[in-house]
Structures are given as structure tokens and as C-alpha cells.
Design a protein that fits this description.
This protein has 16 helices and 17 strands. By secondary structure, it is of the alpha/beta class.
């Protein structure tokens, strides 16, 4: 009996120890294996289960509190059950302050329009990731957070709560805002730059138009040799200034991706010849041998942008003429690759000279903007280092490449510039020869052709009068848009040349008013604004075409043939 009583007391002690958390307390089991031993074994087993459960719970609690992101555990009705220390530190709230409160007490609905959407997505999909919500602190401040929502389940796989992991993205949002503001500032600066270049283009081209126009007219008068030389120098200087202006505008348009490459059929041999013949005479005047060849296998008619190909070619040839004082310049076009399946060819143009050449350490940088191989050449030869940069960008737009070898193989000096372009080609039996684009200086208008010239610049007006009257036109003049509207309402004109920037009323407003008044005369935007956007604005205002200052007789005749 005494032994039994002592055994029962030991079992009671075991139960008490386990109840107090001493899960390692043990009793020896007797060898008989009676009912008392079964009780001892059961209590000991329960102690080990409780020990494991407690260790697991403590481990999970340490993880829960150790996570650097904010954690909230909600009941299924969205009331707060628990928060971790990271949440308390970020918001200033204590867990005891929040238990039982609704989620919207810290994520206020008026600032979080997507919260309900997120909860609906959680209900439908079982989770909702990267939901951006604004969290309010106990000091009335706001924290931008990225929240992920998921369900908690019990051992029966039933929804037992909601876990929210909230990451503080305040710094990220500030960076995004700064980047957006920087982008807006850059866009504004670019827009200001475009506006400035457009305005300066107009201001420079307007007097330049007069200089070049009257130079051409003066050349057709009787001049002594000295006067003819002076006029030729004026014309050459004006052309160089016009080229520089075009280069600057081209470079800016390329920077903004505002240059479109045309795809029109043209005769490659005729195009090359028409642009290279003047340089042949220029080189021969300086006692430099000049030749150009096109390989027989090059297709006669190709589809691409003849203007841009010629622009690149002329840039290279101009440089060769500029930097070659003696020797020769040769231009060659060859077929590099042909794809009959795609009807495409890759043509390679090479311009080789015996000039001063390019140092090896400078050959990689000469295609950069405003860069020359030797700064001392600027004084001797002139130039701004834009031609090659523009050429390289244009060639890239035409799916080609560009480079230089200096000196060329077999030469001691000089340079060999090359570029390739990818073009479509037209089979010989299907080729439709493009029309020759020649200015007809002997062009005459029909008798009685009436033209209105609208421009506030007296020199440009005088130039247009002289040229148009030589073509046989009767010319009327208006100095601003308001005068033009009055005159066009009273008289019928076969054609109206309308400047864009004028006092009182500009050309765009005048064209719009004339179209609203049912004036059907063709209106040509006669402007120094050379940007594609400016031309588009002219057409939108009701104008039919655009003639850019400074213009050539060829340009003017082309417009007259098209619209009169």
C-alpha cells in the first residue's frame, strides 16, 4: 500500500512539473508494465509533445518579430490580431493599441482606393501581391507601402486569418518622383531647345534667302571678272552657312528621333552623278584628280532615301576636297550583298583621298559631335565637326554602318571613308525609271497668272517679285496675314505664298481664316521653319505645300509646276 501511495505521489509530481513547463522531468517505468507505468508513459509523452510545440511556437515568434518588413495578422473580418515590432517602430503604435481595430484604421479608405479591390482579389485568388497602400502613423504622417495579402489556415485547412506583409517604399516613391520631375525638366529643356532652334532657323534663313536669291539674280547680269568673283564668293559663303544651319537642325532632329527615312524608287547612277559632277569640277579647279565609279552588278533602280544617301556622300566628298591639297579623290560604289528572296541589297560607298589623313588614335572619335581629329585644322580648314556625326547617325537609320581607314592600303597618306546602306531593289525587267528632277530655268507661267506674296521682310518680297515676274507672273504683295486675308477676299489669285512668322496676324491664322471663308487658292507656306512639325502645322492650318527659305530656282519651279 505504502509503495502504491508513493507511486501515486510521484505521478502527481510528474504531472505538476509538466504543467509548470518542466518537460524534461522524468519518472522511471517499472519492469511490470502495470497501469501506473502506462500513466507515467502517457504523461511523459504529453510532456515531450508540449515541449516540441512550445519550441516551434517560440521559433515562429522569433521569426515573426525578426522580419524587417511590417507584418499584420488580421482576423477574417479584417480586424487586427497581431502586429510585429517592425510595424510598431514604423507607425508608433503599440500592438495593444491596435488589437481589435479594423484594418481601415491604419490604411484609411479615403487614401487607398485600391484596398477593396485588393481584398476582392484576395478572396478570389487566395492572394494579392504588390498592392500599393498608404499607411498612417500615430503622428498623422503617411508611409508608402507595397503590400502582399494572403490567407492563414488552421490544421483543418480552414481560413483562420489574413497575413499582410507591408514593405516601406517611401524612398522608392521619392526617387520615382525625382526621376519623373527630371524627365519633365529634360523634356521642357528639349522643347525650349527645339523652339529656340526653330526661331533661330527662321531668323537666319530669312536674310540668308535674300543673300542667296539676289546672288543668283546678280550672276545673270553683266559683270566684270572681279565683280563675278565677288558674287561667286558671296554665293559660296551663303551656301556654306545654309549647309551649317541644315546640319545643326538635322543633328537636333536625329537626337529627337524626328527624322524619317524615305523609301522611294530612284536611279542610283543618275543620283550619284548629279550630285558628284559639281565636286568633280571643284576638285579639278584645285588640280586634284577626281573620279567616281559604280560597279556593273549594282542594280539600276533601288528603293530608299536618295536625299540622305546623297547627303552622306557629299559630306564625305566635301571633307576630302577640303583636306586634300594635291593628288586624287576617288569614289566607288559596290554591291556587298544581295538577297533575292527579300529583294534587298547592301551597297558600300567608299571615298578615298590623298589628303592629310586621320591619326590612328583619333579614328574612333571623329564620328562624335563637334569633334575633329586635330583642333588646329579648325583654323586652317574651318568646320564644326558635325558632318561626320550626322552622317553616321543617318547611315545607322538606313540599317548600315560607317568607318574609316587611314592611310588606305597601298598609300602613305590620305584616308578612305566608307559607309554601307541596306536598300530594296527593283528587278531590271520591272524597273520604272523615276522622273528626272531638273530645274527649268527657262520655265514660263501662263499669261495672266496672278500670285500673292505675303511676307513682312522687304528683301524677300523684292526677291520673290523679281523671280516670279521673270517667270511671267503678275505679283501682288501683302505685308502681314491681315492684309492677305482682305486682299484674297476681294481678288482671286492662282497661288498664294504665305510667310509664317509675321506681325499683326501670322500665316497660320491667315490660312485658317481664308479656308473658313471658302478661299480655294493654293496656299504655299513660304517659311524658314524647316522642322517637320512646323510643316505639319502649316498643312493643318489649310496650306497645300511648303517652300523653305532659302530656296533655289529649282525648288520654286517645282512648286509652281505642281500648283499653278
Amino acid at each position: 500500500m505504502k509503495v502504491l501511495k508513493e507511486r501515486i505521489e510521484e505521478i502527481i509530481t510528474l504531472i505538476a512539473e509538466v504543467a509548470n513547463g518542466n518537460f524534461d522531468y522524468q519518472l522511471e517505468v517499472s519492469e511490470t508494465g502495470d497501469e501506473m507505468d502506462a500513466v507515467i508513459a502517457g504523461v511523459s509523452m504529453l510532456g515531450q509533445e508540449l515541449k516540441n510545440s512550445t519550441v516551434s511556437r517560440d521559433f515562429m515568434q522569433s521569426i515573426y518579430q525578426g522580419v524587417v518588413d511590417m507584418l499584420l495578422v488580421l482576423n477574417t473580418d479584417c480586424t487586427i490580431r497581431n502586429v510585429n515590432e517592425a510595424f510598431e517602430e514604423a507607425t508608433g503604435y503599440k500592438e495593444s493599441d491596435l488589437v481589435g481595430k479594423h484594418l481601415t484604421d491604419v490604411f484609411k479608405l479615403e487614401d487607398n482606393y485600391d484596398l477593396n479591390t485588393g481584398l476582392v482579389k484576395l478572396e478570389q485568388e487566395g492572394k494579392c501581391l504588390n498592392l500599393e497602400l498608404l499607411l498612417h502613423t500615430n503622428q498623422g504622417q503617411s508611409i508608402s507601402t507595397s503590400c502582399s495579402l494572403s490567407y492563414l489556415t488552421n490544421n483543418k485547412k480552414e481560413k483562420d486569418g489574413i497575413l499582410i506583409i507591408a514593405k516601406d517604399i517611401t524612398e522608392q516613391k521619392l526617387k520615382e518622383k525625382e526621376l519623373q520631375e527630371a524627365k519633365q525638366r529634360a523634356e521642357a529643356a528639349n522643347e525650349a531647345k527645339s523652339h529656340f532652334l526653330s526661331s533661330m532657323s527662321h531668323e537666319i534663313r530669312t536674310p540668308l534667302n535674300g543673300i542667296l536669291g539676289f546672288s543668283y539674280l546678280l550672276q545673270d547680269t553683266q559683270l566684270n571678272p572681279t565683280q563675278a568673283q565677288y558674287v561667286n564668293l558671296i554665293k559660296t559663303s551663303g551656301s556654306n552657312l545654309s549647309k551649317l544651319l541644315n546640319d545643326i537642325l538635322d543633328f537636333h532632329r536625329i537626337e529627337q528621333d524626328r527624322i524619317a527615312i524615305e523609301a522611294i524608287p530612284f536611279d542610283i547612277r543618275q543620283t550619284v552623278a548629279s550630285h558628284l559632277e559639281p565636286y568633280k569640277y571643284l576638285a579639278e579647279d584645285r588640280s586634284i584628280s577626281f573620279s567616281y565609279t559604280i560597279a556593273d552588278e549594282v542594280p539600276q533602280v533601288v528603293i530608299g532615301d536618295p536625299t540622305r544617301i546623297s547627303q552622306v556622300l557629299i559630306n564625305l566628298i566635301s571633307n576630302s576636297v577640303k583636306f586634300t591639297e594635291a593628288g586624287s579623290i576617288s569614289v566607288h560604289c559596290q554591291l556587298n550583298e544581295i538577297s533575292e528572296a527579300e529583294s534587298t541589297v547592301i551597297l558600300r560607298f567608299t571615298v578615298t583621298d590623298t589628303g592629310i589623313g586621320i591619326p590612328a588614335d583619333k579614328q574612333a572619335v571623329i564620328f562624335d559631335s563637334f569633334t575633329q581629329s586635330d583642333l588646329s585644322t579648325t583654323r586652317k580648314y574651318g568646320g564644326f565637326g558635325l558632318g561626320l556625326a550626322i552622317s553616321k547617325k543617318l547611315v545607322n537609320l538606313m540599317q548600315g554602318d560607317m568607318g574609316v581607314t587611314s592611310p588606305p592600303a597601298g598609300q602613305q597618306n590620305g584616308a578612305s571613308f566608307w559607309f554601307s546602306v541596306k536598300l530594296k531593289y527593283v528587278a531590271a525587267n520591272n524597273a520604272v525609271q523615276p522622273e528626272a528632277d531638273e530645274a527649268e530655268l527657262s520655265y514660263k507661267l501662263d499669261d495672266g497668272t496672278s500670285i500673292l506674296v505675303v511676307d513682312d521682310n522687304a528683301i524677300n518680297v523684292l526677291l520673290m517679285q523679281d523671280v516670279l515676274e521673270n517667270f511671267g507672273a503678275q505679283v501682288a504683295v501683302a505685308q502681314n496675314g491681315e492684309e492677305a486675308v482682305k486682299m484674297a477676299m476681294l481678288n482671286t489669285y492662282d497661288l498664294i505664298f504665305m510667310d509664317i512668322q509675321m506681325p499683326v496676324m501670322d500665316g497660320l491664322e491667315a490660312a485658317t481664316k481664308l479656308r473658313r471663308s471658302n478661299v480655294i487658292s493654293p496656299i504655299i507656306a513660304f517659311s524658314a521653319n524647316a522642322y517637320k512639325d512646323d510643316i505639319a502645322k502649316s498643312l493643318k492650318a489649310g496650306m497645300n505645300d511648303h517652300l523653305c527659305k532659302p530656296f533655289t530656282s529649282k525648288d520654286l519651279v517645282s512648286v509652281l509646276k505642281k500648283w499653278v
